[in-house]
Amino acid sequence: MNHAYSVAAVTVVVLVTLLIGALGLRISRTTSDFYVASRTVGPRLNAAAISGEYLSAASFLGVAGLVLLQGPEMLWYPVGYTAGYLVLLLFVAAPLRRSGAYTLSDFAEARLESTQVRRLASLFVVGIGWLYLLPQLQGAGLTLEILTGAPGWLGGLVVAVVVTGAVAAGGMRSITFVQAFQYWLKLTALLVPALFLLAAWYGDDAPRARFDAPATFREHTSVRFQETVRIDLDQPLTVSVSGTVDDRAYEGDHDVALASGPHRVTGGTVLRFPAGAAVPEKSTGKGDGRAAGSSTWAHPLADSREEHPLYATYGLILATFLGTMGLPHVAVRFYTSPNGRAARRTTLVVLALIGAFYLLPPVYGVLGRIYAPELVLTGDADAAVLVLPERVLGGVLGDLLGALLAGGAFAAFLSTASGVTMAVAGVLTQDVLPARGVRHFRLATVLAIAVPLAVSTVVANVPVADAVGLAFAVSASSFCPLLVLGIWWRGLTPPGAVAGLVVGGGAALTAVMTTRAGLSVSGWTHTLLAWPAVWSVPLGFLTMVAVSLATRDRIPGGTAAILARLHLPEELTDTPEGAADQ
Amino acid sequence: MPTTPRPRRETVTGVPRGSRASQGARGSRTPGHAPARSEISEQTTLGATYVRSLMRSQLRTALLGLGALAPLIGTLPLLFLLPRVLTGAALPASGPFVWAALGLVAYPVMWLIARWYVHRAERNERDFRGLLEGR
């Protein structure tokens, strides 16, 4: 891979992001501009910005990697991410905008008239936000490492610095333009190479990808193992080895006949496979949750699918369908629409934009399975999108398209990270820092991204990358009940909301943390804990309803008034909301 | 899908729903009925009834949307299992049907549900405005 092109592409993306951020600074004059772009962002611009922010690296790189590894069932991820927006539209979009809430904490306080609920909601927003930022920063580090050989911490640092610059300088007005630009960049970066790749694939007599059998090497392929792995061979295989296999060192390319069964390949070894050989399975070592060459984006989650796939699929469906509405950066975006009707129409455009985008990653997954099957073995499945142009097309064209994809991947890290940082910083300014105002918001921005950045350098090789899935599960079990019941049920009380948040969100968090810590390894317990949404979402709803019914005397006095404001079209509510009085 | 609690059912007298768009056009306001708005802003019982009627029609629309999403998309994992159950073969369900459903068809289906919902929700609001202004 030509590093120079990739470095140039990433640099251009970073510079354009900063440039647009600076332009936003020039037109971002008032506090209202700063926080909510003066609530004048039309549906199209806002929808592009929302989509740009929502399509993180998990979508840009992760979906293709998962499809490569595990086949079409992994497409439930993008379908779930999209359906999450549909559920959000049905139950939340317009009322959330009409509530006048800037963050989910604002909504909780306005609806329930309780600062206690507000503080708890803030805690969840910051927690979910940091869980979401962590993989973005680590993924950026990994991508930059693959693309340019730079040290792993550099990518995260670059993203953090650029995001802080863009967010702190121009606030929401800047970020809106930046993210809208990045949506179109991401779509182009995935679409153009896909067309070239498909043409090349067609010219290659359109080989079929097989997902019901192990992938096979199309040509003589040498695979370099970064780490020590155990592989399983279905049948005997003769490979040429340079390095150590089964604790025997081989000098220079030595042809070795490996019997079927497990083998241990020491890190640093190079194996050369003959054309037509089946790609060996990476075997699941005992107590090692991270085996089986999975993608880092959904790691142990994807593993635990194998035991009870139907349950796991529904766990994924519930978490993504219901979790989207509670993601902090998603909620903030709705406030930038001028009114509830615009919020609805914006969401409709968002659905079209992200739906169009998600048609593309499967193409890379399938082509990766055909042309880069060794990624199954080395575990770098997320790199499939990045390496395909070079592998399939080669030459200057391959390098240029690879660079375009690199730029798109970096745009994915930047846009999602800036959206989440913006939301977390908003909550920190309002609920943690002593004084409000733009200067403190800038301080909060630094704080919002510095914490996950610090954590990402400390816990570098711990499987935190699937924190995205965790964030969805926690959000679906905590904020989804709060929003849905808060908007549609008069009986919700502050104690009910607190109990539901703690029990539902807490249960989901504990369950996933338990699996990550490796406390449960297999069986139904493991599956139940790895995919908590199926039981933790109903638990959150039931707790909230039950406790609210038990504390009926605590229904806030202003419930009727606030519900009227949530549901009546703006022109019917007599008192127009004040300007963004942050 | 979680159970969304429905608001308590109440008899709404004198506030017919729907099919009022035709009368709701601007200028058809009859004098003497403008107070409907102030009923709402002053939070009288009648005003609360108006709001409830709007909430109920919007909730019904949202639930219908969810009712379209759940069987169309939510039952797909079960559908994918069918061939395996019927034939008893232990093949992973990676047939062309899965690719077509999850990779292609799911998105336009969801978008159409969304478009239907947006139109319907806006019509509910128009009807409601007509109810207040033109009764």
TrEMBL record, chain A:
GO terms for cellular component: plasma membrane. The chain crosses the membrane at residues 6-25, 45-69, 75-96, 117-133, 153-171, 183-202, 311-335, 347-367, 400-429, 441-462, 468-489, 496-517, 529-550. Gene3D superfamilies: Sodium/glucose cotransporter (1.20.1730.10). InterPro entries: Na/Glc_symporter_sf (IPR038377), Na/solute_symporter (IPR001734), Sodium:Solute_Symporter (IPR050277). It is a multi-pass membrane protein. One of its GO terms (biological process) is plasma membrane acetate transport. Keywords: Cell membrane, Membrane, Symport, Transmembrane, Transmembrane helix, Transport. It is found in: Cell membrane. GO terms for molecular function: acetate transmembrane transporter activity; symporter activity. Belongs to the sodium:solute symporter (SSF) (TC 2.A.21) family. PANTHER family: CATION_ACETATE SYMPORTER ACTP, SODIUM/PROLINE SYMPORTER-RELATED. This is Na+(H+)/acetate symporter ActP.
UniProtKB/TrEMBL annotation, chain B:
Residues 1-41 are annotated as: Disordered. Keywords: Membrane, Transmembrane, Transmembrane helix. It comes from the Bacteria. The chain crosses the membrane at residues 62-82, 97-118. This is DUF485 domain-containing protein. It comes from Streptomyces candidus.
